[in-house]
Specification:
Helix content is 41%, strand content 21%. The chain has 187 residues and is of the alpha/beta class. The chain folds into 2 domains: 87 residues, no CATH class; 93 residues, Winged helix-like DNA-binding domain superfamily/Winged helix DNA-binding domain (Arc Repressor Mutant, subunit A), CATH 1.10.10.10.
Length: 187
Amino acid sequence: MSTQNLIIYKFNELYQILEELGLNLNFKIIIVDNEETLNEKTKKIHNYLVISNKKYSYIHNQFVLDHIPINIFKLIEKINIEFLKLQFNSQSEVIVNNYTIDLNSREMLKNNIKLKLTEKEINTITYLSKSEKPVSINELQEKVWSYQSNIETHTVETHIYRLRKKISNTFNDKHFIISEKNGYQIK
C-alpha cells in the first residue's frame, strides 16, 4: 500500500501540535501554506488527505477541522477514517475506455452524463473489459450469471441487447460492446 499523506493546509497550529507530540502516526505529514504549493504537491502524490480549519472549494480530498478543541486521539481516529473512505472510493472506480464505472453507486459516467446500471450490467461490463478476446455466451452464463453452460437460455443475449441500447441512448455509443462471432467484447 502506498504511503498516506496528510497535507495540513493553512493550519500551522495543528502542524505544530502534531510535530511537538511526535506521535507514531501511520501517515506522513506535509505542511502547505499556499494554493500554488498545494497544487504542486497534490500532482506529485496520489494517496493524500488535505486537512484545514475551513472549507476551500478548490480542494479535493479535504477534511475540515472546524470543531476545536478536540481530543488528539479522536482527531487521529477521524483522520484515519477519512483515509479509509478515500481508499474505499478510489477502489470503487473502474475506467473502461472513456467511461468511469462507479461500483458503489452503480453508475457509468462520461462528460458529466450518468447512466444508472444494475449489478448484473456492472458485472457484465467489468468482466468483458478484463478479457483480451471475445467472451462466449456460455462463459458469461457461467461467470456472470452463475448458470451452467449447458442450459438453453437467451438471458445473456437479451441482457447484452438491453445494455447496448441503454448505452447507445445515453452516450450515443453504438460500439461499446461489440458482437464477434466468438462472443462479446469491449475494445
